[in-house]
């Protein structure tokens, strides 16, 4: 039996899974770059040319927008650099994973603050938000435990799969189940306040808040369901990466748009910004 045939039989599933992950990764990178270029004029006008004092709201925008490109770049090296050593594979994977974790936390904070805004600064909603934010602690513990079980042996086919991981069954789905829970609460709170105020004549600022709240949260919720399903349902370690980066990029794209859309709306109705929203991104 020829060597290529042996490799095909032994590593065929690994190769097919790795190639599929690469396709999804490239699509995610394309989406991140496309949206960045599309929204760059708006970002320059409302973020970089803002003459006011630099605020934590602008900081959240910069974090949710630009952290994405850090972990995307690191994961690109992990997936495509055939010269990587097993040790380098481990370093890149863990670094990318922690950047992704941090980026999703930032995105969830923006979603929660936006939810607080559409509830007009309700103290009860504030307590709910603080409680939901605490899931980052068990999330970090799960991430650490999952990373500690991974090993990266020498890849026999580095030109196709530079890094091959092995280890115990991943528990990373728990992290994304926590994200799923947070996004479910966000959608529920959005629907509740929307039904309560649907008869009112909403101004542009409030319309943007409600529209983005429901649409973007629903997209992220659906993506989280898909990701949890893949992570919990597959035994292929390679496939664990399938939807991690797409979900990360969507969190970056949609939450950065939330802030930019609010800036555009607040520019049209400046007198209403402070009364309508505690998160106007100025």
UniProtKB/TrEMBL annotation:
Keyword Ion transport: no
Xref: Pfam families: DUF6533 (PF20151)
Keywords from the UniProt entry: Membrane, Transmembrane, Transmembrane helix
The keyword Cell wall biogenesis/degradation appears for this protein: no
InterPro entries for the chain: DUF6533 (IPR045340)
Membrane spanning residue stretches: 20-38, 59-79, 91-113, 125-145, 176-195, 216-243
Limits of the DUF6533 domain: 23-69
Protein's UniProt name: DUF6533 domain-containing protein
Source organism of this protein record: Schizopora paradoxa
């Amino acid at each position: 039996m020829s060597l290529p045939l042996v490799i095909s039989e032994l590593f065929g599933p690994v190769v097919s899974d790795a190639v599929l992950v690469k396709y999804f990764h490239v699509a995610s990178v394309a989406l991140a770059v496309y949206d960045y270029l599309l929204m760059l004029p708006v970002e320059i006008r409302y973020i970089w040319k803002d003459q006011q004092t630099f605020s934590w709201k602008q900081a959240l925008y910069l974090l949710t927008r630009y952290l994405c490109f850090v972990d995307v770049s690191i994961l690109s090296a992990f997936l495509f650099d055939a010269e990587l050593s097993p040790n380098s594979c481990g370093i890149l994977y863990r670094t990318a994973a922690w950047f992704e974790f941090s980026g999703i936390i930032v995105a969830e904070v923006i979603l929660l603050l936006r939810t607080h805004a559409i509830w007009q600064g309700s103290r009860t909603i504030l307590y709910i938000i603080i409680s939901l934010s605490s899931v980052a602690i068990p999330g970090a513990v799960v991430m650490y435990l999952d990373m500690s079980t991974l090993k990266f042996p020498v890849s026999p086919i580095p030109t196709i799969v530079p890094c091959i991981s092995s280890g115990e069954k991943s528990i990373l789905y728990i992290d994304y189940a926590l994200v799923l829970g947070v996004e479910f609460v966000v959608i529920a709170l959005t629907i509740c306040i929307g039904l309560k105020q649907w008869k009112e004549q909403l101004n542009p600022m409030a319309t943007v808040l409600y529209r983005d709240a429901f649409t973007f949260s629903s997209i992220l919720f659906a993506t989280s369901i898909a990701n949890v399903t893949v992570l919990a349902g597959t035994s292929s370690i390679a496939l664990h990466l399938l939807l991690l980066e797409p979900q990360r990029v969507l969190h970056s794209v949609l939450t950065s748009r939330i802030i930019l859309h609010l800036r555009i709306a607040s520019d049209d109705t400046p007198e209403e910004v402070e009364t309508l929203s505690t998160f106007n991104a100025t």
